[in-house]
Amino acid sequence: MKFTKKEVAKTIDHTCLNPAGRIADIQKLCEEAAIYGFASVAIGPDFVKYASKKLEGTDVKVDVAVGFPLGYNTTATKVFETKEAIDNGATEVDMVANLVAVKDKRWDKVKDDINQLADVCGDITLKVIFETCYLKKDEIIKLAEICLEIEGVDYIKTSTGFGPEGATMENVKLMKEIVGNKKMVKAAGGIKTLDDYKSMINAGASRIGSSSGLEILAEIDNNIV
């Protein structure tokens, strides 16, 4: 299958979650996303209202980070954060699963946390971030199985980009094997080049989160395989 530059852009969440980021960075991010046709801008909650207005009239989604970067906020906090972001114009939500609960194998708590956000999101795209660098294989499998049980989860996602390791082909393949065609997989963290991009797509990812989207597109001349 061949991907044009336009098709590649449509699979990338153009990301700016830099803790030192400024409104000028978000302005630039939104302008680039509109010009190149990225799937979304992935940003922190405080920038959602601005980005929503900036991208009005475009096809670019506003993708908000919830529970970043560790996921151990209370569920009530995540619910409020999500509701406020949606009210401010967010059209996609990337939430971090409660990693502490995962490590403690408090699976009911993990499921309830995700379920409540799925209820808030409704028809809005929900991606659940595993932060795979902190998880063992059996924990990744169990978390993916829980997400399979929740109708409102659209994607399972590898990483926040804030951990010691980002997406790996091994974890993307594992996650895709578990969810099959019932959910999609988003790879994020450390994806900086066209080769990185192709590796993740070939491993089973449908969406890519990257702050290097422009650099990836710049490597494409005409078509890629």
UniProtKB/TrEMBL annotation:
Show the catalytic activity.
2-deoxy-D-ribose 5-phosphate = D-glyceraldehyde 3-phosphate + acetaldehyde
Pathway the protein contributes to: Carbohydrate degradation; 2-deoxy-D-ribose 1-phosphate degradation; D-glyceraldehyde 3-phosphate and acetaldehyde from 2-deoxy-alpha-D-ribose 1-phosphate: step 2/2
Q: Provide the alphabetized UniProt keywords.
A: Cytoplasm, Lyase, Schiff base
Q: List the InterPro entries.
A: Aldolase_TIM, DeoC, DeoC/FbaB/LacD_aldolase, DeoC_typeI
- Cellular localisation: Cytoplasm
Q: Which GO terms describe its cellular component?
A: cytoplasm
Q: What is its EC number?
A: 4.1.2.4
Recorded coiled-coil stretches: none
Q: Where is the active site?
A: 94 (proton donor/acceptor), 157 (schiff-base intermediate with acetaldehyde), 186 (proton donor/acceptor)
Q: Which Pfam families match?
A: DeoC
**What terms describe the molecular function in GO for this protein?**
deoxyribose-phosphate aldolase activity
Q: Example GO biological process term?
A: carbohydrate catabolic process
Specify the domain of life of the species encoding this protein: Bacteria
Any idea what job this protein has? Catalyzes a reversible aldol reaction between acetaldehyde and D-glyceraldehyde 3-phosphate to generate 2-deoxy-D-ribose 5-phosphate.
- Name of the featured protein: Deoxyribose-phosphate aldolase
Originating organism: Iocasia fonsfrigidae
The organism's lineage is: Bacteria, Bacillati, Bacillota, Clostridia, Halanaerobiales
